[in-house]
Amino acid sequence: MNGYAGKILRIDLTDRKISNIDTKDYEEWVGGHGMGSALFWDLVKDKTIMGLDPRNVVTIMTSPLSGTLAPGASSRTEVQGIGIQSYPIGWFTRSNFGGRFASMLKYAGWDGIVIEGQADKPVWIDIRNEDVKIKDARHLWGLDTWKTQEEIWREVSGRGYGNWVELGSEERTTQPPAVLTIGPAGENLSVIACLIHDAGHSAGQGGFGAVWGSKKLKAVSVIGTGAVHVADPKGLMEARLWAQAKYSMDLKNIGASWFSRFGRIRPQNVFWKRSEQARLQACIGCHQGCKERSDTGYGNESTCEETSFYQGYDKWKHGGRQTSSAYIATDLLQRYGINAYETSRGLAYIIALLRMGVLGPRGKIQCDLDFNKLGETEFAEQFVRMIAYRKGIGNDFAEGFFRASKRWGRLEEDLKTGTLYYSYWGLPEHGYDPRAEVEWGYGSILGDRDINEHSFTFLFWVPSTTIWAGKTPRPPAEQVVKIYAEKLIPYENNPLMLDYSTENIYSEHMAKLVAWDRHYTRFWKESVLYCDERWPDFINTRISDYRGLTGEGEPRFFNAVTGKKFSFVDGMELGRKIWNLDNAIWTLQGRHRKMVHFSDYIYHIPFAGSGNFAMYYLPGREGGEWKYIRVNGRCLDKGKFEEFKTRFYNLEGWNTRSGWPKRRTLESLGLKSVADELEKKGKLGA
Ligand code: SF4
Fold first, then answer.
1. Pocket test for ligand 1, best of 262, 291, 293, 304 (most atoms within 8 A of CB)
2. How far is the CA of 289 from the centre of ligand 1 (A)?
3. ipTM
4. Cis peptide before 361 (omega within 30 of 0)
5. Measured between alpha carbons, how far is 675 from 446 in angstroms, rounded to an integer?
6. Residues 595 and 492 occupy one common structural domain
7. Residue 684, ligand 1, Cβ within 6 A
8. Which helix or strand (DSSP H or E) is residue 404 part of?
């Protein structure tokens, strides 16, 4: 099987049983999310169980491209299962992380791992090629994520670096094992606990840290000495060199790719002003790293929200100067295994409550945090530790700040005012607010979590930052929209899909954009595992006609590895199938159209700019002309959003009264057995 190891590791922690699933049985789903959803569907008979139920199954999946030279696709790992973070129901959900875990799993001979049951005492899983053992983890329980990994590295590969690890008479490597682990937050079942790999790769959303904690699973370690069989190695190398030369960053003209995901510069010091020596760091196989390693060792491999969540407080405390506090706060999140978006929005929330006089020494909500130290390392440590160990008010924080607000009797009021900046499913707003970046908001509320997929966010970033700098955005809106629209197959050449004007955001065109994004990401990004940081590449200003890699690139690498003849649109159709299977699972969990709505403030507080940027421009038509239009100041109209939902459900072939999938739709996708199951449970859309 080109691109596949051929088997999936199945581990039942209750019975300590280790077995294999033949990858061929799930090959039609390709890999990653598709395979994970299909495995979950087959193995979890009762979809209404809670995330901490021992019957919950967690899948950790790779793709055929994992461990190969496909750019930005070798390293990602998809994690799925019933989560505990969303509200009112912990949806069947997903998270994803980079690094070297996926490739190492493939080199060890596995396409994925399925974890079932619950151990009676702490365990870790030790995978050395074919040799898999469930081991006692009592000596690891209580350690932070970095110390846990160091202990396992020592146990598997001895002290020091670069040791030869013998895995058989002819199999050896100098690589340390790749370890995925939980920290104290996961052990203490915090709703906002993550899985951490290496220094700063985390599967953040969903609360999978606590799901592992409830299973008494401390870590999974894998080391392998094999390889991935590639159907056309020459074709793969040629494709890599072609993409590198044409679409990647031009080292002689670094600014040329200012409008491109595949080629842009994006190290973490976009957020940090490092004064020490640092170099770029990439996940395995990536053509263009977005992470860093520094000579101080602070903040290594972390990127995005965890790098920025404490920076503002650090600067505020230190007269506008950044100190090491911001880096150390980042590392604390990684070490204790805590979700960065929850801590970021949560900290802002409790500071707002402090200022309102409802939290702290003068307020009804007693809080033992020392806010005089805000901005110092000491405060960050106190805050993170009280969440991880559920100390004092940290016991409320550990439930996530949405549930904490509910405990304090403030939820309704704070969602009305937007003081609690949580837009959908009890989850923190990511910064691409539904009132502005509608495809992000709609995709999130119609799915299971904040989508965290940046397919269209450059439509905001490029014009907004350019206009803020007093310049004219290039290329102009009309040209940008035309190029994007060409690539929105199978809805191609419909520019109205990219019209973010208030008149258009509830239209069928916008429904198509949301559907395109859901189908694209479910397959190309979450199943084939192209990294969201680099894909899709609609526009690439390094190219004379500005047409990016997307459409041609995705199937080219995939086919070179697998030997299949898969087209871009084949992938979109499979993405639609996976998205429908997910909706069937949510339906069985209890989802109904009535639940699909945003938090109150989205409907009546005008959007004043996001955590990302105060001025928010997106393409849209004004007076019949394409422009970058300012979308600040608008709210969503509740009634019109309901009309949008009807349009979206119609487009997807779901029942418009319930949002449940219809038999005709499921059967057309080859999901007859799913339709039968929904019918049996009285949940089939009429
Ligand atoms: S772009 Fe960044 S996160 Fe994505 S694969 Fe490359 S290094 Fe990893």
1. 291
2. 5
3. 0.99
4. no
5. 20
6. yes
7. no
8. helix 401-407
Distance of CA 372 to the CA centre of its chain: 34
Positions in the chain whose pLDDT score sits under 50 = none
How far is 64 from 344, CA to CA, in rounded Å?
35
Count of CB atoms situated within 10 Å of the CB of 535: 27
**pLDDT at residue 362, rounded to an integer:** 86
Contact indicator for 496, 505 with CB cutoff of 8 Å: no
- Name 539's bridge partners: 547
CA distances from 545 to 479, 496, 540, 568 (A): 10, 21, 8, 21
- How many Å lie between the centroid of ligand 1 and the Cα of residue 549? 17
Instruction: Give 469-509 as a DSSP string.
Output: TTS--SS-HHHHHHHHHHHSTTS-S-GGGG--STTTTTSHH
Q: Name residue 221's beta-bridge partners.
A: 126, 179
Closest atom of ligand 1 to 72 CA is 5
Neighbouring C-alpha atoms within 13 Å toward the C-beta of 374: 13
Q: 288 C-alpha vs ligand 1 centroid, how far in Å?
A: 7
Best mutation site among 68, 247, 290 for ligand 1 pocket (most ligand atoms within 8 Å of CB) = 290
Q: Which of 223, 242, 258 is the last residue of a domain?
A: 223
Q: How far apart are the first and last CA of the chain?
A: 40
User: Given ligand 1 and candidates 74, 534, 535, 549, which is best to mutate, with the most ligand atoms within 8 Å of its CB?
Assistant: 534
* Domain, as residue range, for 606: 438-680
Considering the domain boundaries, does residue 251 fall inside one? no
Claim to verify: residue 452 and residue 374 sit in the same structural domain = no
Determine contact, residues 331/298, Cβ cutoff 8 Å: yes
Q: Which CATH number characterizes residue 551's domain?
A: 1.10.599.10
**376 and 494, same domain (yes or no):** no
Q: Which tens digits make up the pLDDT trace of 424-483?
A: 999 999 989 999 999 999 999 999 999 999 999 999 999 999 999 999 999 999 999 999
Residue from 70, 81, 34 nearest 589 by CA: 81
* Helix (H) / strand (E) containing 377: helix 377-388
458 plus 405 within the same structural domain: no
Q: For the segment 671-684, what is each residue's pLDDT rounded down to a tens digit?
A: 999 999 999 999 99
Chain position carrying tokens 């365990």: 123
* Number of structural domains in the chain: 3
Residue 486 maps to a domain: yes
Give the CA angle between residues 489, 61, 147 to the nearest 5°: 130
Residue 90 · residue 101 · CB < 8 Å: no
Tell me, yes or no, whether 357 and 451 share the same domain: no
**Long-range contacts, stretch 239-242, CB < 8 angstroms, 24+ apart:** 239/70, 239/553, 239/556, 239/557, 239/560, 240/69, 240/70, 240/71, 240/287, 240/557
- Ligand 1 pocket, 112 CB below 6 A? no
CATH number at residue 396: 1.10.569.10
Eight-class DSSP state of 361? T
